[in-house]
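Structure ticket #2291
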Amino acid sequence: MEPEFFMADGEAFSRAINGEHYRSGAGLKAGLDVAPIYNRYLPLFEGERFEDAKRWGLEPVEQRYILDFIASGYLHFRTSSHAESVAAAEARLTVDWDDRPVPYRNVSGLIANEDNAVRRHDLEQRYLTAMATLNPILEERERMMQREARGFGYPDYVELYDDVRGLDLPGLTRTMQAFIEDTNELYFSALDTYLGEMHILRDDARKCDLARIFRAPWFDSYFPGNKLLITLHHTIRDFGMILEDQDNIRLDTEPRPLKSPRAFCSPVDIPRDVRLVIKPSGGVQDYETLLHEAGHAEHFANVDAALPFAYRWLGDSSVTESYAFLLEYLMHDYPGSTDTSGSANLSSCSTWRASISSISCAATARSSFMSRSSTALTIRRTSLRSTTSCSLTTLALATAWRATSPTSTTVSIAPSTCVPGSSRPSIGNICSMSSTTSGSGTRRRVASWSTCGGTASGTRWSAWPNSWATRAWTSDRSARRSVV
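Resolution: structure written out below.
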């Protein structure tokens, strides 16, 4: 197969498979029918295609994306019947609760909304019992994935993906183990605070209790369901875009029994048709989730349609996650305001407008939620508007990154790849984060990004001390500084 035909068929396959996953995940159909799609496009993945792609003379990054696409496609083709079986079983499964059968996919929302710990634990156990019925199919799928990966010359699919995706899993494992060890005390201190408020000992706590904590029902009055979409539209408008005018982004917020409880963004045809799917369960998490998925949607909807297949459809998922977390974390540090009805209004801040401005975020409703675990955080942010022609400038937030060196450290988060002769970034923007430690033990973090062939732009922020990691929140209420 010639490279140009491969790329055209690869895009057609991606449209078909993503469309099928959208319809199934959105609850528009029971089950998942992916086997016919894989069979139709089998020449993309079979035979010597993996080795053929190495001889096509592609750019190194593009070649790595294509090799990942071929290997992943083949493994998923070989296990497509397992994926269909799991989807069909999930659609049929129910959990008996309050004398009625509840669809399996609705149970996680009920767990988060159940305020009685005894009932919550009971419901979770019923949910896990139902989930365990899927294990035989998943175990067989796992064995087949491992077996088929060896056909590519790797001992298992972990080694396969580590190579074709350039992950360095051993190094990442060491970094995350150090991160967990460094934040254990802070994490469990915060956890014990919340569990204590629910009169639950740590040894008696279960995963469902975390779901209840993050559900944060005590802030429901600030995040009402009827303001969810309004807040999204206003927030996107503050980035200089009108969501109503982006006809390539379609919102799916309708509740359906078979709809996946996990919100997702499905790029059916990048950048022409992007679906944002959410199943609201109530409260602040709905806002966070919707903004997160909207970040994905804006990324896919603003990709240059002229880019090659590999740079539009494939690549490192950390790029699209940077867009997603940028919007989601407005809920953590956005000043916002409260209107007369008591609902959150994220659109009132002009931080991301053309002029340079600074904001103090310690008094927001979301920050006060965090402060309930003895946390105080003041952030002052300065934003510089990009002067390039890129449709959307992004700041890549590393949600689990934390420098451990006592001296100045720089870590690359999302490297950019440019198409020759183009001023647009092909898969994202360059982003780096640095951390320096002062004599008092306080750390300063700086994030920056730039675009290909244009004037560099960026955001600087400072958070003292060590507060930007997912689990690391300080109990030092006096730690307050201004951005330098």
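Closing remark: Residues 169-197 form the longest helix (29 residues).
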